[in-house]
Amino acid sequence: MRKNGMRKSGLLTWALVWVVALSACTSSGGKEEAALSGLDREDKGSLKVAYFNEEAFYMQYGNAFQAMYPNIQLEVVSTESVFNAEDPVAEMEKLLQEQQPDAIYLTEEQYAELAKKGLLYDLDAVVKQDQFDLDGFLPSVIELLKARGGGKLYGLSPNFSSQALYYNKDMFDQYGIPYPTDGMSWDEVLQLAARFPVKKDEDDALNGLFQSSQTSDLFELIRTIGQAKGLIYADSDAGTVSIESPEWKAIFQSVIDGYKSGSISMPSDGGGAGGAATMRSMGGKMTVRIGGDSMRFMSGQAAMTIDGPMIMNFMGMNMKMGGGAVAAESSKSSGSGGKVESPFKDINWDVVTIPVDPSQPDVTGSMSLESVFSINATSESLPAAWEFVKYANGEQLAKTGSMSSPSLSSRTAFKKTMEGKNLDAFYSLGANSQILLQTLPEGFADSFAQLASGQIKKVVEGAQSVDDALKAIQTQGQNLLTKANVEAGQG
Fold it and tell me: Which N-terminal stretch is annotated as signal sequence (predicted)?
């Protein structure tokens, strides 16, 4: 299983959608395709949907459906336990076989694995039959769906995740440094970061480049830069680790130099002090917490940061306490009535594309699918399931979501906008399939990152050289991969 290059903001679904159901019997095998037609209010039928949480589903989908089509029986199979399982892919497969839902709400990796095993319905035929317009989607979203489906389309994704380079315009102006631009290389961005004066005091810290609010280890930035350059640190099929090379050494050296000087922030093990912000989704279960050190860019203590669209919802806003999907907590209280002081500042910010490699200037490894709606390959209600998937990815929902959701809409007509901001930076790069489709044994990527982070920390602290760190990571990383392949039945 691959490790995504970015921390996802959660599985977000943000509007009501009606569901159409018809009685039919078909599957992706040899059964005849059913004709797709409309549904009257009086028509009877049923649809079984596998969704994260039943309460959330009825709030976002079911209540509107029941009001419009009172004679349609809607059943929801909760997948909450699946997402909390040690192996969500295996658990989703088990649920699919035991419960036999018609339509399924999946993560990107669940989608890829279930498609590989032939458990999802190939949508190509119904897309053509119904003349469903795929041209309205961001091309890279459809490309990624097909790539993850082995060349076929087994689902549709209403939203996607991507990253961009945020920068503080006032800070650049203050120090007379030119703004970053779209298409900059990683080397150029690291050089920009090094031009800012560094402050290491905790409460008065200043970094040239602050890492993503979701970055958890010292290796992640190095891996991201290496992958942008087309470097692979581990090949599961060949069973080899290839980290001890001149190309990787140069990246390690430049990032570690930034860690040492303070021009690049080092991810914090703890939440730090000074406040936290939480955004909840999926009925309150899925949570993204931005706290302590992770708010440094939003509090004006960093010139640049790499992150997704969610943090723009926190910047420059007065946090309202006690309601809504966003909550803030802070150790800094005003002392009157328990009022909490917002840790956020009004920042004159903008974004450009995430840094790229000059040899591949049009792609990024930071793109992923937030969620995928698919159909069970053995569904007995194909028309109903297809109508649900079609509308969940349709224009009406995209239009509503564009006004209320922090997510990026897959439909280009409803791109996220914010006055004066270059939000095209989130949309303009295609998916780097070489990186996004790389597969590694279960748990290996996390173990390798932990190993590499420990060695990097020793170099930063002056306890060893970069060469010694690379040698240790190479040797111990090879042992980790060999063990992981054996455990996965590949060795």
Answer: 1-23
Integer angstrom CA distances of residue 178 from 32, 183, 189, 192, 300: 62, 15, 11, 8, 18
Distances (CA, A) of 247 to 86, 207, 226, 383, 436: 35, 26, 8, 52, 20
When computed from its CA atoms, the radius of gyration of the chain, rounded to whole angstroms, is 24
The candidate with the shortest Cα–Cα distance to 116, out of 304, 336, 374, 303, is 374
Given the structure tokens 């991810």, which residue do they identify?
267
Lookup: tokens for 226: 């290496």
Phi, psi of 3 (to 5 degrees): -100, 125
Q: How many CB atoms lie within 10 A of CB 462?
A: 8
For the record, the structure tokens of 23 come out as: 């009685």
Per-residue pLDDT tens for 187-202? 999 999 999 998 766 6
CA distances from 458 to 265, 429, 462, 468 (A): 16, 36, 6, 10
Domains identified in the chain and CATH numbers: 45-161+367-430 (3.40.190.10), 164-216+267-353 (no CATH), 436-487 (no CATH)
pLDDT tens column, 233-257: 999 889 999 999 999 999 999 999 9
Task: Specify the amino acid at residue 289.
Answer: R
pLDDT given for residue 254 in this prediction: 96
Contact 19, 47 (CB under 8 A): yes
Phi-psi region of 423 (alpha: psi -120 to 50; beta: other; left: phi over 0): alpha
For residue 453, name the pLDDT band (cuts at 50, 70, 90).
very high
